[in-house]
Amino acid sequence: MDAIVAYLWSPRPPSFGYHGAKGGRSGDPVVPSGEGDGGIVGRKALLPKTRRTIFADAGISALPVERTMVGFGSIVGGIENLATREYRGRTMARHIKRCIYCGADSDDANLTDEHIVAYSLGSDVYLKEASCVACADITKRFEQHVARAIFGHHRIHKGTQTRRPNERPSQLPARILIRGVEYRKELVITDHPYFLAMPIWDQPGLLRGISPSANFDGLCAHLYYHIPDNIKDALELSDGEIAEIRPDTAGDATQFGRAIAKIAYCNAIAHFGLDGFEHLELPDLILGKFPYVSFLVGSVLREPPPPNRDGPLHRIVIGENWVHDRRTELWRRVLVTNIRLFATDGTQANGMPIYTVITGAPKRVA
């Protein structure tokens, strides 16, 4: 994600629309139209490889909807006959009494509760006694990366719950380049411009019929950003002065993919129980033992649909599909989960990306 760069021109506070671009050279500008005299005269984003997408409006909408919805239906040809379950507040989805990752039971290890979506992302739905301390330490690391490196500023602007509210900052740093000199400026939250870079790559390799690989084909990002209306005053810019506001992101696709996989896996256990489906390699992927994250986790390399404004904070839907496994040359049914984190947020035209996880396989009947 180091390649992401965005430019803002003053003096007039921006009124953003949606600007997207694909292909071309990495330095090609995306120039909005109809900005008027004295307004924004250009904007560009440099993303890894050749795919670039920018989503912006007057701000990233962040509706305070504190719900999580999970559902089960057919993935083939769209979701049909969808049975959904909505969780509100702190809810135990299922009591497991075993580590869902390594299999240790309460006689062998101290078991902790395991959130389906991390608490730091605004959810409090959990599996009771579902992770041993050793496995919890592994999942905690990549969940902290996602909460801080990817969603950190979005969570603070949105006011998402935290276990340490007294430690939440009242100011955030912004990377600013003025007259060729870059510096960091601490701004109060209401004056702070911020960026949210959501990593995306191609659909899971198993769905595409390819062999496991550590590569993330088509890896790039959707870039969302919020520029406050008073940005000129906040940065103390003179009329005609140009300020470049730079995203400060360091997202890791492997850690992010493992976090998405964990959500899908925990959600499937909430639906079917720990022994109610075949897990395939997903537990090993979550623990870092199966290195081919993109084989089971992916997304779609196109603009995401509008946000679900009236829906739950996170939307998780699980269904079934047929895939051809190149390792066995056999067709098989698999469980496929679609995950949209912060499903209510985004611009009018484009919400957050939807991720796909090969979550396991239906239990074979003897």
Which terms would index this structure?
366 residues, alpha+beta, 2 domains, seven-stranded mixed beta sheet, four-stranded antiparallel beta sheet, 18 strands
How many domains, as an integer? 2
Written as H for each helix and E for each strand, in order along the chain, the element string is EEEEEEEEHHEEEHEHEHEHHEEEE
The portion of residues assigned to helices is: 10-25%
Summarize the biggest pleated sheet. 7 strands, mixed
- Global shape: globular
Number of helices: 7
Task: Tell me what you see in this structure.
With 366 residues, the protein is an alpha+beta fold. It folds into 2 domains: 8-58 and 154-246, no CATH class; 67-146 and 252-362, no CATH class. Helices cover 17% and strands 31% of the residues. It is built from 7 helices and 18 strands. The protein has helices at 133-150, 152-158, 205-208, 231-234, 253-272, 282-287, 293-296; strands spanning 8-9, 19-22, 51-56, 67-72, 83-88, 91-95, 111-115, 125-132, 171-178, 181-188, 194-200, 220-226, 242-246, 277-278, 297-298, 314-325, 330-340, 355-362. Strand 9 (171-178) and strand 10 form a beta hairpin. The termini are far apart. Residues 1-82 have low confidence and may be disordered.
